[in-house]
Structure formats: structure tokens, C-alpha cells
Write a structure and sequence with these properties.
This protein has 344 residues and is an alpha/beta fold. 25% of the residues lie in helices and 25% in strands. It has eleven helices and 17 strands. Strands 3, 4, 5, 8, 9, 16 and 17 form a seven-stranded mixed β-sheet that branches. The protein has a six-stranded parallel β-sheet with strand order 12-11-10-13-14-15, with helices on both faces. A two-stranded antiparallel ribbon has the order 1-2. α4 crosses α5 and α4 crosses α10. The relative contact order is 0.15. The model has no long low-confidence stretch (mean pLDDT 95).
Length: 344
């Protein structure tokens, strides 16, 4: 069986690996159809991803076909032959977070493609409760459900109310997902980004017209858009320490800052500045099963048009050459997609 392995930073290889075992108790055997390429994958390729070790089979944004279901007493909404998306978070179910319904930040979290091998391979087994059927959702959109869930969870963490002004910093896929769900939740959304093409994408694909050039005095631009005020909600989706630290300056008095991206290392901020605004600081990690259900429903209702998001595609035989180019902003990647359908 073929798999794509990140042997070490900047070295991808397509090689033969062992076939997966038959599905055991409470397991399903799945054939991989599509893999969305995430910022996590790009950071891991560049050697700058938290919680990551090498070698690793990456891939956690997955659309799969169910081949076989092992013995189980758990109620399932799918059968063999169905296409499903994957919840890639292998949580323990017993820690304090899991007991409180926060499986997304399990104390012993194992994420496919990060802590353990993921879906850049022809087939693999996984727990039956990590598969979700989504009738009517095309296979490429199934592979983007988890990405959208990151944004949906961030918006949920912010407890958005009608009338909130939300600034999303970073227009990569996670930023775009966060902006999408902040808008769905009723916020008046603006996006800050250094890449002009991505700002154009926000206007054309997301219908967001409040756009801020991150390289040109952001606070002045924000205040011009908000009548001299600052946003009540700020989401930093960059994974850049400099951006995350600067984001504290953009939050209105009484407002909230949600850190969606994360870095290797520490952040610092001015405590007087933070306290004077009685600012709320939140982290947002992964997503919950409730987030997955909500995103799937949005896709089934046609509330999100994902067609413009997928700008680049590759096959297993070509990804080693294509992958490095996706780190270059000049390539114009919004979302890249790996297809196993025509594996030779």
C-alpha cells in the first residue's frame, strides 16, 4: 500500500507501507479519497509545527469511503460504501476536558497526521465514532469540513452577538473559515492581511468589503472603518508571534481576543494595556462534534460556496514536487487538495 511520508523537514516521499489490519472492535476501515492540505501540514514540512515528530504520514482533513465496519454496539449513521468526513482528534474520553464535553482539547490528544500517522495513505483504520456521513456534500467539500470546523469553533468561543465588530487577522484557510462563521453568527466582519490577492479573495468569494492592509498602519485603517473605534472581537489566525502580540492593540475596551493560530514559543503583552481594557483572552483549539454537525448542515444547505477555495490539486505521484511551491505566497494557493482516486 502506498503512503506519502514526511521523512524530515522538506523531504516528502511516496513509499510502500504495510496494509492496515482488518477493522477491529469499534473500528472502521476507510479508503482515502481526498486530503486537504492544511497550514499544519505546511508548517510541519518547514519544520515549524507544534506537537510534531518525524517521520510522519500527514493528513487530517479527510474525505474517505467506508470499506468495512468491525463489531460495535455504537449507533452509526453510515454503512460500508458511504463517503464520510473524519473527526481527526483521537481523544481519551476520560480526562477532565473530555468529561466536560471539550474533547477538542483532551489532555492526551492525538491528532491524525500530527501526533500519530494520518490520512496521506490509501487506507487506514480509525474509531467508528470519528466518521460522519454528510449526504449531498461533494467529496472535495467533505475533505474541507475539518478546516471549516476550526473557524466555526473559534467563532463559537467568541460568543458573537449581533452588532459585534469582528476583525480576523490572516486570510489563510483558517482565517477564511473563521471570517465565514463570524459572519454567519451575525458579526460585522473585517479582514486584515498582507497579501493583496487574499484580500481580493475575501471580497470576491466571501463578500467581505472591509479589508485592511496589514503593512499600512492597521489601527488607522480599522478606526476609519469603525468611526474611530476598535473591534469588539479580534481573531488572530496567522500563527505569527509578531501578529499575535500586536493583536492586543486592536481590541476595544471590554472586547475579546481569540488566538486561533499557535506558535512554538512564548508570547508577551503589556499587562496595564490588557487590564485597562478588561480584555478577554481566549485560545481556540480544534473543534467539537457539535461544530462538525453545524458545518455539515451549513454545507448541506448551500450556505458556503467552497468552489473558489480549492485553487491547487495534486496526485500522490506529484505532491513531492508540488508541495514546496505551496509555501510560496506567489503561487496563489488558497487551498490545495490531494487526490488518491487515480493512484497508479
Amino acid at each position: 500500500m502506498k503512503a506519502i511520508v514526511l521523512e524530515e523537514p522538506f523531504q516528502l516521499s511516496l513509499r510502500e507501507v504495510a496494509e492496515p489490519a482488518k477493522a477491529g472492535r469499534d473500528e472502521a476501515l476507510a479508503r482515502v479519497k481526498r486530503v486537504g492540505i492544511c497550514g499544519t501540514d505546511l508548517h510541519a514540512f518547514g519544520g515549524n509545527q507544534n506537537f510534531f515528530s518525524y517521520p510522519r504520514i500527514m493528513g487530517h482533513e479527510l474525505a474517505v469511503e467506508v470499506l468495512e465496519i468491525g463489531d460495535t454496539d455504537r449507533p452509526l449513521d453510515y454503512t460500508a460504501g458511504d463517503q464520510c468526513c473524519v473527526i481527526p482528534y483521537m481523544n481519551c474520553g476520560a480526562c477532565v476536558a473530555c468529561r466536560r464535553g471539550k474533547s477538542n482539547c483532551c489532555a492526551d490528544m492525538q491528532v491524525l497526521g500530527v501526533h500519530i500517522d494520518g490520512g496521506m495513505r490509501e487506507q487506514f483504520t480509525l474509531p467508528v465514532d470519528k466518521l460522519l456521513r454528510a449526504d449531498g456534500v461533494p467529496v472535495e467539500q467533505l475533505a474541507l469540513v475539518e478546516m471549516l470546523c476550526i473557524g466555526a469553533h473559534a467563532a463559537e468561543r467568541a460568543r458573537i452577538s449581533d452588532g459585534d465588530n469582528a476583525l480576523v487577522i490572516g486570510a489563510g484557510p483558517i482565517g477564511l473559515a473563521t471570517a465565514t462563521f463570524a459572519k454567519i453568527a451575525g458579526a460585522d466582519v473585517m479582514v486584515m492581511e498582507m497579501n493583496e490577492a487574499r484580500l481580493d479573495f475575501c471580497a470576491e468569494a466571501l463578500g467581505i468589503d472591509k479589508l485592511i492592509d496589514a503593512g499600512k498602519d492597521p489601527i488607522t485603517q480599522i478606526q476609519q472603518l469603525l468611526g474611530g473605534e476598535l473591534p469588539t472581537l479580534v481573531f488572530d489566525c496567522t500563527g505569527s508571534a509578531g501578529s499575535m502580540e500586536a493583536a492586543f492593540d486592536y481590541v476595544a475596551h471590554g472586547g475579546s481576543l481569540v488566538l486561533v493560530g499557535h506558535i512554538k514559543g512564548d508570547l508577551s503583552f503589556s499587562d496595564p494595556h490588557f487590564h485597562s481594557r478588561e480584555m478577554t483572552l481566549l485560545a481556540s483549539r480544534n473543534a467539537t462534534p457539535t461544530d462538525f454537525a453545524r458545518v455539515i448542515k451549513c454545507l448541506q444547505l448551500g450556505a458556503i460556496n467552497l468552489d473558489p477555495w480549492i485553487t491547487h490539486r495534486a496526485a500522490p505521484e506529484t505532491i513531492a514536487d508540488a508541495f514546496p511551491t505551496w509555501l510560496d505566497p506567489a503561487t496563489g494557493v488558497i487551498k490545495a487538495m490531494l487526490s488518491f482516486d487515480q493512484l497508479q
